[in-house]
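Data availability (excerpt). The following record was deposited with the supplementary files.
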Amino acid sequence: MNDRLDRDGRIKYRAELSGSNVRSIAGVAFDGERGLVFAVAHSSSHVSAFSLDSESFARVSCNVEAMAVCQPTAIAVDWLHRVVVTEGDSSEHRVAVLSSSSLVHGARSRVWAITARAAAQSSLCNSPQGVAVDANNHRIVVADTDHHRVVAFSAVDGSFVFASGTEGTAAGEFNFPHGVAIDHARDRIIVADTHNHRMQVLSLIDGSFLFEFSKRRDARSHRMHTPVGVCIDNRGRVIVASCATMELQAFTPEGYHVSSFDCGGNCDSPPWAVAFDEQRGLIAFSAGNRIYVIGANQWLDSTFVWSLDRHRYAPSEIKQVVLTMTLIRSLVCESPLSLLPNELLFEIFARY
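Predicted structure:
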């Protein structure tokens, strides 16, 4: 339990993973088009799914028997709605690609897997703890944690593409990296260099080092401490789960601090994984064995921007604004209000 988060009005959904094998939630990922949040837990073989289309954030049954996942450590969803899971605590140290439809509906799940025995020697992973999908280049990017590097594989057949990094503290070197995220708009990989207490930004093309940031670039110079999870929102902001400071931190694409979200200060349940839903503007994060979902525009502004094709995903207050505007147009067609552009009416009624 986290009383502070349970009382926080910005939290739209919350759910708990229970079971004797569930220690804490290691990874979360959105399949926004299908309205699902996937989660995996440390020391468990379960992939759980929760419905965003349910007011109660209902759990969807997953076909555990068919997926054959051992002790997952991170999760992502690709452009084909396949679920990509790293298995960093198993003897195989695999990256498994699963069918999300099969997970939910009960058919055979595994598509293929990259294993230590099957992969080329140069691409072996040791305890991978983070995974992201590069939709533009059809790649899977993995934080190869115990090898202190980042590795990219083909998402088509699992073949090795490149590796970047060695153990150390210099630029381009890592100390047990965990989370990875893809900034498609800028062709970059964002890496949580966990025990160096910094974020490193790499080229998405070949993994070469671009720059790093490790603190809020303001007068207080508040340092980042033990970053673990990372994701990118629809404005390119880097959202980091800072384990030791018990908060989510948001940065501009250039690494300047924007805002922090207090995750409650419970040292037994620090924030770990974080994900962003591009369709709905939601931010999900894990703390202990619980998932929390921050509502659209409730922490960071403009995580959801209304458009006609996205109206079905809009928060209820935005839907009400659109309804009000429509009624005004239909009832007062000869009023001066009818001469105002829709965008201005939207701004007026969204603020009051």
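Summary of structural features: Residues 3-303 form a domain with the Neuraminidase fold (CATH 2.120.10.30).
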